[in-house]
Amino acid sequence: MSLADLAPLPLGGVDPLPKERIGDLLVEARERTLALVDGLCDEQIDHQYSPIMSPLAWDLGHIAAFGDLWLSRAVPGLRSLRPDLFEVYDASETPRSSRGELPFLPCADALAYGRAVHERALVGLEDLDVSPSGDRLNAHGFVWHLLIQHEHQHNETMLQAMQLAGGELPAPALLSGLTCPDVVSSAAGPETVTIEAGPALIGAGPQGFAYDNERPRHILELEAYELDREPVSNGAYLEFVASGGYRRREWWSEDGWAWREQEAAERPLFWTDDGRVRRFDRIEPLDPALPVAHVCWHEAEAFARAHGKRLPTEAEWENAATWDPAAGRRRAWPWGDEPPTR
Known about the structure:
- By secondary structure, this protein is mostly helical.
- The protein folds into 3 domains: 19-175, Four Helix Bundle (Hemerythrin (Met), subunit A), CATH 1.20.120.450; 180-229 and 314-330, no CATH class; 234-306, no CATH class.
- It has helices spanning 3-6, 19-37, 42-46, 56-74, 107-126, 142-163, 234-242, 254-263, 297-306, 314-322, and strands spanning 192-195, 198-202, 218-222, 225-228, 276-279, 282-285, 323-324, 329-330.
- Strands 1-4 form a two-stranded antiparallel ribbon.
- The protein is globular and about 65 Å long.
- 24% of the residues are buried.
């Protein structure tokens, strides 16, 4: 593999999506957000359950304010609906720990604000040029992908807040029926794959949407390394816990051990001491075949050390997840070039 093979290859998504598809994605993002809070009462949505997460109502208002701000910049002649709220919903100026004390919009008002912004977005999109020849914000649909990805991002933080609510909030209905593939492992341990040494293409190309910390695309020289083919399973992590993983100082870094002592951690955050796991408001048996979740960096690092391994670097992980050695090129997604369907 030469540098010439690497340099011109884009990450995927270089062809701009038609406006109809962008509109569909805006609708899908909004529907996901509304589904997360469907069935919750106003009090549950307005309450801050954890100092490290926002009240759900703050996220709802923030999504709306973010859209309100960028629509006024991207759509000619469109003025913001509620510029008076931009300071309240400025994520860089409002630490999560204090967001519960802010004068954010209560649930019903936040939902109404979001609905109004969403409707304006769909109407504004109709008359804009999102082709490569469009203006700086609209070319390739840049600002529209920003709005879509931002809403998805807050869907994730809202789910985190709901899981951290100590069992007081039910699992969102949209999660029902979703399954996760079992981790395939053997008595000999996980199968590994060798990644050969050489140049690796890291980061996003110049076209399509990406956050600025993914650019510019660049090439790094990586040494050869091995990576497990499958994620760590609950069963494998349970063996680590049972073998004294949280008491064996030699498996933990200095910072990791200090964290473990400070948190008095004995197992992953939502595991119970009788071998079960809490998912939102339900306590369920721990499925040993599922990938382990809700472990922090220190816990993952200790597990790797206990097995004579280490965690991959960001560059190693990105290279393994995106490079297709058979085709000799970078994939748009870890599974190939087709975008996700759900």
